[in-house]
């Protein structure tokens, strides 16, 4: 009987120690989770406590100003201009960034889109907007391809400002200072996109040279460098926007495309061309007798086409923002058809200086411009 009582007493002690141990571990784990993960508020915020909570959120992540985009017209190229312009202004003025889930989801289908140090969540943004702290004011600016130099001055977007971009911000001057960051952090292809595009390039090497190169696909820039180092090929990207431009007479002529190709063939004896277009049947017919010109597959998405052209060393582009970005991200020489009306007040707001190549290549049958 005595032994049984001792055993029962010992069991109670072990049980109590076990419970205490579990409590201590729970406290430690909870503390670590709170330390390394920001507080999120997935539940509705009651109006009674909203002002206090909003102030707490902004103070917690040290929000002084926000540059944001909630509406963006057009398609991928226009959206990239809006994202890049917002990023440039946020970086310049040390502000946080906000994009709607629709915009970030579109970007992340193609790009790594690393904005971890700048982007705030939809929950945080909505909390601030729905009950604006007294020290913060909102401002919206809607433009169409203009350059706003006063926004580049110190404190143009000062502490306490919520600055919204609306319209079509298509001047590269708002973000060009941070071009390296755009190319190496934001508009960097996801691995899945690189894998699809790499198969297209590898098939060309197989067909042309009976050789299968082994590319590293872990890094966008590394893959691009490996393509550029090939002794056999200098890659030239060609973007042809045609379908909707036929109705507005903005489509580039065959003469413009063929003359631009001849320019690069004379400049680079090993020039080979990658063509992406919204009218691939037209392109295949136009270039059907040219063995050094390859049209991207119909199965390619817009993102695949953009990345394929951005991996080239030099570019030929027609009108529109999609083609503009292929040339800008490729970072080489760019021949651009200036017959396209950019809508900017001055051409230099839209066309970087390296977009116009001196020579006698006529930009368009009905244009006085030559490039």
From TrEMBL:
Pathway this chain belongs to: Protein modification; protein glycosylation
Gene Ontology BP annotations: carbohydrate metabolic process
This protein's UniProt keywords: Glycoprotein, Glycosyltransferase, Golgi apparatus, Membrane, Signal-anchor, Transferase, Transmembrane, Transmembrane helix
Pfam families with a match to the protein in the record: Glyco_transf_11
Enzyme kind, highest EC tier: transferase
Transmembrane segments: 13-33
InterPro entries: Glyco_trans_11
Membrane topology qualifier: Single-pass type II membrane protein
Documented EC number(s): 2.4.1.-
Protein name as annotated: L-Fucosyltransferase
Upper classification of the organism: Eukaryota, Metazoa, Spiralia, Gnathifera, Rotifera
């Amino acid at each position: 009987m005595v032994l049984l009582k001792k055993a029962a007493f010992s069991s109670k002690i072990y049980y109590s120690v076990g419970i205490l141990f579990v409590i201590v571990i729970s406290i430690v784990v909870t503390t670590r989770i709170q330390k390394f993960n920001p507080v999120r508020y997935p539940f509705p915020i009651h109006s009674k406590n909203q002002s206090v909570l909003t102030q707490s959120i902004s103070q917690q992540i040290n929000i002084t100003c926000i540059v944001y985009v909630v509406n963006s017209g057009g398609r991928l190229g226009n959206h990239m201009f809006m994202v890049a312009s917002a990023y440039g202004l946020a970086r310049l003025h040390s502000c946080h960034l906000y994009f709607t889930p629709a915009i970030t989801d579109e970007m992340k289908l193609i790009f790594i889109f690393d904005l971890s140090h700048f982007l705030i969540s939809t929950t945080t943004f909505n909390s601030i907007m729905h009950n604006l702290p007294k020290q913060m004011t909102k401002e919206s600016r809607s433009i169409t391809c203009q350059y706003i130099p006063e926004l580049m001055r110190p404190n143009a977007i000062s502490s306490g400002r919520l600055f919204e971009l609306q319209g079509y911000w298509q001047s590269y001057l708002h973000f060009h200072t941070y071009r390296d960051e755009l190319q190496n952090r934001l508009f960097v292809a996801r691995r899945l996109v690189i894998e699809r595009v790499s198969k297209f390039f590898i098939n060309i090497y197989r067909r042309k040279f009976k050789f299968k190169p082994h590319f590293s696909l872990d890094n966008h820039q590394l893959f691009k460098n490996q393509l550029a180092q090939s002794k056999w090929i200098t890659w030239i990207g060609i973007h042809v926007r045609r379908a909707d431009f036929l109705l507005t007479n903005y489509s580039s002529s065959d003469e413009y495309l063929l003359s631009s190709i001849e320019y690069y063939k004379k400049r680079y004896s090993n020039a080979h061309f990658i063509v992406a277009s919204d009218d691939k049947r037209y392109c295949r017919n136009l270039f059907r007798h040219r063995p050094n010109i390859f049209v991207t597959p119909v199965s390619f998405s817009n993102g695949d086409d953009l990345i394929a052209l951005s991996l080239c060393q030099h570019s030929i582009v027609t009108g529109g923002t999609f083609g503009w970005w292929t040339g800008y991200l490729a970072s080489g020489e760019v021949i651009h058809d200036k017959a396209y009306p950019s809508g900017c007040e001055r051409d230099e707001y839209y066309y970087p200086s390296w977009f116009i190549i001196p020579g006698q290549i006529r930009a368009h049958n009905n244009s006085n411009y030559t490039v």
